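FAQ
Q: What does a multi-component entry look like?
A: The components come first, one per line:
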Amino acid sequence: VTSGDGSVLAHTLVVDRTAIGEASVVPGTLTVGAGEVLLRVDRFALTSNNVTYAVTGEALQYWRFFPTGDDTTGTPPVWGLATVVASGHAQVGVGEEWYGFLPPATHVVVRPGRVDPTGVTDASPHRAGLAGTYQRYARTAADPLHTAATADLELLHRPLFTTAFLLDDLLADETAVGGDVRTVVVTSASSKTGTALGRLLAARDGVEAVGLTSSRNVALVDGLGVFDRVLAYDEVDGLAAAVAPAALVDLAGDAGVVAAVHDVLAGALCVSLVVGVTHHDADPAARPSAGPRPTPFFAPDRVRARLRDWGPDGFAARVAAAWAPFVTWVTPLLDVRKVAGLDAAAQEWRGLVDGMVDPAEGIVVVPAAG
Ligand SMILES: NC(=O)c1ccc[n+]([C@@H]2O[C@H](COP(=O)([O-])OP(=O)(O)OC[C@H]3O[C@@H](n4cnc5c(N)ncnc54)[C@H](OP(=O)(O)O)[C@@H]3O)[C@@H](O)[C@H]2O)c1
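Then the predicted structure of the entire assembly, as tokens:
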């Protein structure tokens, strides 16, 4: 909706910072100044990753990307596709399609800094100093990972697949993880990140990948055929015979599960990576009595390191080469569910926060439809 003075009425899904399940859709007015670009958000994915952005909104600064103007509320970032509908920047044309970090909203204004044929970096002052991965928008017309036919899969899986790619790469680097890893234990194995990591690990000779998941998801994860073994969270004792050295990739963030894995693997564990918090409401009290100190893994840091090592083209080529067979494999496994409008998205968000997640399903929101 464009008013007579050139401003745009936008709607944004915002959450209560201290009770992230409480989501509402708020109206606002956007204006596009010189050097700025107005994006219409065409569609975005919602997964547990976005809930984790909200859980860690304060600590990892996710609230800073799309400020609400009020410290009690926050906009959880999402990965999506957007179209330029107004441009005050000479190198950006109306009609361009971009992929990147967006608010769950109908529209957003960004301020292009570096612009090149493959993409645009947002240089909005409120985003200064935040991780580079999140500032970059890919121009889909020049994006080797993008095809219109696989766009929904891209929204749902691309950031998570890239994380899995980086984890697989890190685990293969024995100097970085402290050993020639022979066993990799992955929690929340049913998640998109866990599934992608399992798929990549399956291609590594001599590595046993063990998926840990909720008992309700054991059969589904088993059926993926990528993990050598799948155990429920209360079957961690089954790791006792694991071949050393072992690594733990923790996507669940459940302190009790982490402590149990550390206790069983003990000296066999060479690295313990803290990656996700899908079980954000788990009791945080348990502490591991054995094994290495858990190390935080932040994908944008590893992206930066590999961009230095491989260069932007080398990085893009490696991810694209791994992505293509993954998309072919995962397409029949994921049921894409389209959600129309932000009010419906708020309802889905509440479900996600409450753990009502069907790992066989991926949610794609079309914000304008409500
Ligand atoms: N550190 C980084 O840079 C980085 C990068 C990307 C992703 N991540 C993290 O990786 C995690 C996985 O993200 P994703 O988007 O791939 O997840 P997803 O596909 O949405 O995962 C769904 C699975 O997560 C578990 N789950 C979700 N919500 C839950 C709840 N409230 N209670 C209990 N279990 C719940 C269940 O798995 P189980 O039954 O198998 O536990 C569920 O099947 C997120 O925490 C994300 O932030 C971290």
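Q: Is there any commentary attached?
A: Sometimes. For this entry: The first strand starts at residue 8 and ends at 16.
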